[in-house]
Amino acid sequence: MLKDITLGQFFPGNSVIHKLDPRMKIILCIVYIVAIFLCKSLAAYILLIVSTVLLVLVSRLPVKTILKGLKPIVFILIFTTVLNVFWHGGDHVLFSFWKITVYLEGVTSAAFMIVRIISLVIGTSVILTYTTSPIALTDAIERLLSPLRYIKVPVHEFAMMMTIALRFIPTLIEETDKIMNAQKARGSDFSTGKLTERAKALVPILVPLFISAFRRADELAIAMECRCYRGGKGRTRMTKLKLAFRDIVALLVLALFVAAVVLLNIYFPIYAI
């Protein structure tokens, strides 16, 4: 289960999305999230599904890897579905049993919410984390937040911390999996027993994990100091970020997508929520 978490992982490639400027990717990701939450009607959600599929195809990432990344949110999807189906009111009753009444509006809301969450996870991952290296992401965040330097905000340090944290998520997950396997080999059981017993069983995992995390952080700090890292002041870069024609095209395509979502909500308000 832990190995299915792909948050923070970078998959090298040669697709159009891989070649986009990382600054533009962050902007596109924000606009895409806004577009997802603007969806209100059935037609808009159909367009959202089509756009998500097209994103996956254009990125040329393995579909199996992307679907594997959805496994950690299965519980959230089930919980959201139950809440919407059984606690969402409406005017059209599908069926009623004892004190449970299911409305058409609740089922529609649950379906839309599932599409919204899956599109949010896949879209943001494909646009940003899966196709952008940690170094490029650091430079992009620093450049976009550079105006904050005038009010004495440590932009470079903030961008570096965010990128390192994102980069070390897969490493810590792998370390947790190794510790769990070692504890299981010693007879520990994490899947049975009461909730308090399961919580106590996690202590032998958390302690070595924290020690390992601090050790890795110390090693990284020493390695950065050995390479004469002194923050963003006076730092040079091997490659400079530069907007290309494809970045402008990508922004225009996403702007058209947002406009299409708004128009579909207005002119085709079928099953609108």
Report on this structure.
- The structure is a single chain.
- The chain has 273 residues and is mostly helical.
- The protein has one domain.
- The chain is 66% helix and 3% strand.
- The chain is built from eleven helices and two strands, in the order αααααββαααααα.
- A two-stranded antiparallel sheet has the order 1-2.
- Helix 2 packs antiparallel against helix 6.
- The protein starts with 15 loop residues before the first helix and ends in a 6-residue tail after the last helix.
List keywords for this structure.
mainly alpha; two-stranded antiparallel sheet
Please outline what is shown here.
The chain is mainly alpha-helical.
Estimate percent helicity. 55-70%
Indicate the overall shape.
flat
Report the portion of residues in β strands: under 5%
Query: pLDDT below 50 for ≥5 consecutive residues: which ranges?
Result: none
Strand order of the largest sheet: 1-2
Task: Average the pLDDT over all residues and give the rounded result.
Answer: 84
Q: Give the C-alpha Rg.
A: 23 Å
First-residue to last-residue Cα separation: 34 Å
> Topology as H/E string?
HHHHHEEHHHHHH
Structural class: mainly alpha
| SS field, number of helical segments | 11
The number of distinct β-strands equals: 2
Largest sheet: 2 strands, antiparallel
Oligomerization state of this entry? single chain
Q: What is the domain total for the residues?
A: 1
